[in-house]
Amino acid sequence: MHTYLTHGTSATLGTVVRGREDEKVVLLSTSEREIVIFALQECLERITTVLEKANVKKTDVNLSFVPTDARYLSSDLIKSRLLYTSEERAVKDMKIEAGFQKLRNDSAYVVSILEQTVRELRVNGSFPTLRSIPNKLRDIQKKEMSVLAKARKNIETLKSLKELVAQERYANELENKEYREKLATATREMEIQNAKGRASITYVSAWEKARCEQNVARCNIAEEELRRTLAKLKVEEKNEKRINGNIEAFLCHNIAENEEKIIEWRKRYDREWTQYTNEIGRLQKQINIEKTALARLKEEQRVKQNFIDEYLAEKKAERKKMEHEEHVRNSTIKIQAWWRGVMVRRKLGPYRPEEKKKKRPTKSKK
Fold first, then answer.
1. Which one, 77, 122, 166, 188, has the greatest CB density within 10 A?
2. How far apart are the first and last CA of the chain?
3. In degrees rounded to 5, what are phi and psi of residue 27?
4. By the 8 A CB rule, do 349 and 360 touch?
């Protein structure tokens, strides 16, 4: 209704407006202003008449049957939860109340716009409020679309949650059935155990009575044995006390003797410590003297060792020289022997035969 009345009013204004635009504001002449005001007042009267005929008033809706969590659900969910129940009337009342509430809100909005437009025409000769309505309607439509998208998404989420709840309910029913069966089994087993317990209690009572009698007899025997053991231990304790007294006296005498020996050994220790200290001092002095003599002897040994080393070096050089001369002499002898052998083999020099010496012509002297 809101959209219909707005478009109708705009169409009516479009048929009569022939003003001019000044800074994007439509200004009407006096005659056109009167015509538009008359049309708007007529529209207001018709809206009032329609509302009176429709008997728009607050409806008494009974919400006592509707659960609190179901009052904000969609109609499909309400039908699925309240179908074939006594709450169907409450759902219908909710729908009727919602329709009447929307009608009242739209009517009040249209009436306020028309009254504001009439006031603006009478004062300024323009209608900026009416011109801004399409933009507002587009913004409202966008917001409504986003709200509807969110509502559909929430409905899908709610459906999935309902499926999960149904699955959980089915699983819980199966689990409860299993637990009931276990409880019945446990009850039967408990009854059997109670019967066994009552039977075993009678047997255990007789057995406990016989066991107590046996334990009393056993305790009497053990008591008699313990009495004999106690008498024996008393005798042993008396003997041990006598022995301990003798040992204590011996230890006291031995301790006194040891203390006297300790005093004597301490005196001997002091005497020997003084004696050995003096002896150590004397030996230390002698060691120092011996160290001095040893240093002097080391110095003499070093000098003599140097002399010996020089002498040995000279002897070694002389021996090498003699060896070299002997080697030269031997080599000379070997060379002479070799050459003599060559002359003998080749019959040279003095080793040439006599015949050859005679045949050799003598050189004439010139």
1. 77
2. 182
3. -110, 130
4. no
User: In the numeric block, which tokens belong to residue 344?
Assistant: 């003998």
DSSP character string of 36-48: HHHHHHHHHHHHH
Cβ atoms of 133 and 6 closer than 8 Å? yes
Label residue 21 by pLDDT band (50, 70, 90).
very low
Calpha distance 18→33 (Å, rounded) = 10
- The amino acid that residue 231 corresponds to is A
The answer to whether the CB of 137 falls within 8 A of the CB of 3 is yes
C-alpha angle with apex 120: 28 to 8, nearest 5 degrees? Answer: 75
Sequence-separated contacts (24+) of 61-68 with Cβ below 8 Å: 61/90, 61/93, 61/94, 61/96, 61/97, 62/89, 62/90, 62/93, 63/90, 63/93, 63/94, 64/90, 65/89, 65/90, 66/90, 66/91, 66/94
Closest C-alpha among 70, 68, 67, 64 to residue 158:
70
Q: How confident is the model at residue 313 (pLDDT cuts 50, 70, 90)?
A: very high
Q: How far apart are CA 56 and CA 101, in angstroms?
A: 9
pLDDT in tens, 179-207: 888 888 888 888 888 888 888 888 888 88
Give the span between the Cα atoms of 131 and 24, in whole angstroms.
Answer: 11
Three-class DSSP category at 27: strand
Q: Do 106 and 2 meet the contact criterion of CB atoms below 8 Å apart?
A: yes
To which H or E segment does residue 68 belong? none
Predicted confidence (pLDDT) per residue in 53-112, tens digit: 665 444 444 444 444 444 444 444 444 444 444 456 766 777 787 777 777 777 777 777
Full-model pTM: 0.29
Alpha carbon distance 297, 291 (integer Å): 10
- The predicted-structure confidence for 107-128, as pLDDT tens digits, reads as follows 777 777 777 777 777 777 666 7
